[in-house]
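G., the chain you wanted modeled:
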Amino acid sequence: MKQYYTYILLCSDGTYYTGMTNDIERRLIQHKSGYRKDSYTASRLPIELKWYVECTNPSEAIRIEKQIKGWSRRKKEALINENWDDLVAFSKNYKEFGNQINGE
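Predicted structure as tokens:
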């Protein structure tokens, strides 16, 4: 069965990059080599794989990628750190709850 991956990279400038692939090892080599000079990660090397999930359906991997791309930095970090309580808290309506979490 074919596998698909959604992943999060930490870039050297402290930003996160979220992507999807059907070959995570090949894709990491591509990112680390900066093979596409105009890509987001090429100017932010080195990069580090922080999180990934394996899927059997490409549509599911794409859905997860798009979902994560819409998340705040702190929500991505909660996922990476498997901090499920914060992930739930950061999923609440930001206008209503955002300034109350962690004193922010």
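Strands lie at 4-11, 16-21, 47-55.

Shout if anything looks off.
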